[in-house]
Amino acid sequence: MPHVIGRRDFAAFLGASLAAGALPGCEPHVAATPPPGRIPAFADAVASIRDTIARDAADPAILRAALPRLYEHGKPAAHAVVLFHGFTNCPQQFDALARAYHARGCNVYVPRIPRHGLKDRLTRALTDLSVPELETCAKDAFDLARGLGAHVSAVGLSLGASMVLWLAQTQPIDMAVSVAPFLMPALPNGAPIPSFVGEPGMRILHTLPNMYFWWDVRVKERCKPDYAYPGYPTHALAELVFFGDAIVKEARERKPLGRQCVLVLNEQDNAVVNAVSRDLLALWNSHGAGYRELVLDGIGRRHDVIDPTTFPQGRTLVYPKLEALVLG
């Protein structure tokens, strides 16, 4: 079992690893941009999603709260919305927002990201999370959503926000709303990881034996919400950064395909480095993308602004803004 430590030791660990000398790097997994998928009929999209939900429901290892969600009106809607949950969380995180979009006439799909949502909260399943898995999950969800409505939007938080950025780069999505993308983690006090530590440190993390970090070392496995994992493996953390690297690499080479994209940030986010996301936004706009940024005010020092279990104020402070971005 990997050694279990707190996030407090993260910077010290990376710095010590770098000081120990150069280690062989781990190249990020970069998949070729897939061709546009066939738009499925509404009935076929619904049937495919319901098959996925049924398979997950039949798997005794998957938590019921983690089952994918589909809220639909029995016919194609003007707006189809895909909601991608955050790193170590599950579809339950977005259920309240999904219902809010559905109440406003949208057909809504909330997929379960691979290796998330297991009943064993202390699982190390995320150790083998990979960039190709994340790309496939995002692409499959987008393709199915194209059968659910005329105008397709995706909203995601953290890892889910990075998946939304990947869709903005590679797919003709109508609106991509990326909330606090997890492109580079911050230090435990919310300060940016120095550039000379960041990417090299992630390569080292992926090269060294896997370890496990608690999200909150004070409460460890009692961390809320109960349907999310209370910690994460270091190899998975590195893979999230490699995912961001893959998006940036494509952004340097070509203009994004997404029609609109909004980067939603909290200036006091204590988990991710906003500057990395802003650099990607600037790179896209240098290609003439015309994407924009929305800064959330009055949120405080937090990363997860979606989950009503840990931030019930999100229903009034955040949800209306995300609904307005998609529906106007």
- Proportion of β residues? 15-25%
Give the radius of gyration: 19 Å
Helix/strand/pairing class, anyone? alpha/beta
Rounded mean pLDDT score: 88
The overall number of domains is 1
Q: How are the strands ordered across the major sheet?
A: 2-4-3-5-6-9-10
- The coarse overall form would be globular
CATH topology-level fold name: Rossmann fold
CATH architecture: 3-Layer(aba) Sandwich
* Low-pLDDT ranges: 7-35
**Residue share in helix:** 25-40%
| N- to C-terminal distance | 49 Å
CATH superfamily: Alpha/Beta hydrolase fold, catalytic domain
Number of helices: 10
| Biggest pleated-sheet summary | 7 strands, mixed
Q: What is the top-level CATH class?
A: Alpha Beta
According to DSSP, the number of beta strands is 10
Short description:
The protein is built from ten helices and ten strands. It is of the alpha/beta class and 328 residues long.
Write the layout of secondary structure elements.
Layout lengths: L2 E4 L3 H10 L22 H17 L10 E3 L5 E8 L10 H9 L3 E4 L20 H15 L3 E9 L1 H12 L4 E5 L15 H13 L3 E4 L16 E3 H20 L7 E6 L7 H13 L5 E5 L17 H4 L1 H9 L1
Parallel strand pairs: 1-7, 3-4, 3-5, 5-6, 6-9, 9-10
Antiparallel strand pairs: 2-4, 7-8
Helix pairs in contact: 1-6, 4-5, 5-7, 6-7
Question: Could you walk me through the main structural features you see in this protein, from its secondary elements to its overall organization?
Answer:
- This protein is an alpha/beta fold.
- The chain has a single domain (37-208, 236-327), classed as Rossmann fold, CATH 3.40.50.1820.
- It contains ten helices and ten strands.
- It has helices at residues 10-19, 42-58, 95-103, 131-145, 159-170, 195-207, 234-253, 274-286, 314-317, 319-327, and strands at residues 3-6, 69-71, 77-84, 107-110, 149-157, 175-179, 211-214, 231-233, 261-266, 292-296.
- The chain has a seven-stranded mixed sheet with strand order 2-4-3-5-6-9-10, sandwiched between helices. A three-stranded mixed sheet has the order 1-7-8.
- α1 (10-19) crosses α6 (195-207), α4 (131-145) crosses α5 (159-170) and α6 (195-207) crosses α7.
- It starts with a strand and ends with a helix.
- Mean pLDDT is 88; it is low at 7-35.
